[in-house]
């Protein structure tokens, strides 16, 4: 593997880089150099978060020529925004875990509540399915992208707001995005998918070959 190849990990909404630590350790054992970024996901809208993340990445990747990403939830939307709106052209392979690529019906139902905004910040309220929301600025992807999403929930109340199979926050259909290279549904929940051993193995497989095992 090229020593100028780096994997950037981006956590999800209202989480920290600690949530990606198990994934980071596994990637390090697999021979990858990693950058596990923390960012203030509850403090700013997606546009500002993406700019902050871009600046952090640029300051930490040195002379890397290939930059891969492993993201959870909101982290995947930041990568799409980086690529589409901030002209970040160094993206190579990306694995998104439970990304709300078409938005979440939970936000449609609860996003207007003060408590929801207090818990999730301005970025959280942007993740609805409205056709004039943040996703109207983001189109199909044109980088190598593998999407892994879950079909298990630990919050049945939220799951009742989501049509079809879901992980408690995002439906398996909303995780899809035009242009993705590979797609896999696993028996995992939204909060803990990044710690799932089978998922970690699939992440490594995609970073190495551009496809999930069995694809």
Would you spell out the secondary-structure blueprint of this structure?
Blueprint: E1 5-10, H1 21-29, E2 33-37, H2 46-60, E3 66-72, H3 74-85, E4 91-97, H4 105-110, H5 114-125, E5 144-150, H6 156-159, E6 182-186, H7 197-209
Parallel strand pairs: 1-2, 1-3, 3-4, 4-5, 5-6
Helix pairs in contact: 2-3
Description:
With 215 residues, the chain is α/β, with parallel strands linked by helices. It has a single domain, classed as Rossmann fold. 33% of the residues lie in helices and 17% in strands. A six-stranded parallel β-sheet has the order 2-1-3-4-5-6, with helices on both faces. α1 links the parallel β1 and β2. α2 crosses α3.
